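Standup notes
- HV: blocked on the assembly model, inputs below
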Amino acid sequence: MGVSIAFWILAVLAVSAALAVISVRNIFRAALSLTVLFGAVAALFFTLSADFLAVTQLLIYAGAIAILILFAIVVTPNFQFANRSNKLWFPTLVASALILAAILVGIFRTAWRTVKPVDLPTTDAFATALFDQRLGFVLPFEIASVLLLAAVIGAIVLAREK
Amino acid sequence: MVGLNHYLALSAVLFALGLYGALSKRSAVVVLMSVEVMLNAANVALVAFSRYVAPPLGSVMAQQGAFSGQVFALFVITVAAAETAVGLAIIIYLYRVKETVDVTEVDLMKG
């Protein structure tokens, strides 16, 4: 029951924050709304018993990525055309609405093989799924570290002063 | 009682809002922010599937247990962090070259 109430509050918060990101005129405020959305999604992960992911979401998204975006807004002062739309906004709106309708039809017409969820701390089982010797994701994990290294070097090379 | 369909519907709404923003906005920073909204929507769906849906019996997923969805979400977060770092570096470089971050004015490759 408590989880249901939390879900509805967080759903309203997340959707209104996403609406604010695409409709608020000031880009800086849009970025702050995005941070609210990241926090709401982290809380949604808690309601799904995904403890580790919720904390990761707070650290990476609400911490690092939000600060990076605010930093990019500050160093590219472009408030004169703050959050304006391009000429194709109406076809885009129609296309997005159609895609939303298609996804919703797909969701509600599919008979999902649902199981009764268990309310346990899942970090232990999550680590087993990630690092299991035979069926884990150890190689993708190592490749992700190489990807992050390449991204860091690429970002420095692109953004440094000539 | 809130179940799988509620989370998936929320995820679909967030995804559509992010899609609209990514395709219709002029500021490159807002486009990047909308892409982050879409990635978050996908993560909500992945974690909801990992909690509520049983993998098909006999598949590799069934042997891995029900946590593959959470593992995928973790990798999505990792790749999103890399994508944001590189994307914002490109935006800063663009601002230095063109004095704007308006994606409709960046047409250097237009024939």
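- HV (later): unblocked. The first helix of chain B runs from residue 4 to 24. Residues 22 and 48 of chain B are 24 Å apart (CA to CA).
- Next: hand off to the docking folks.
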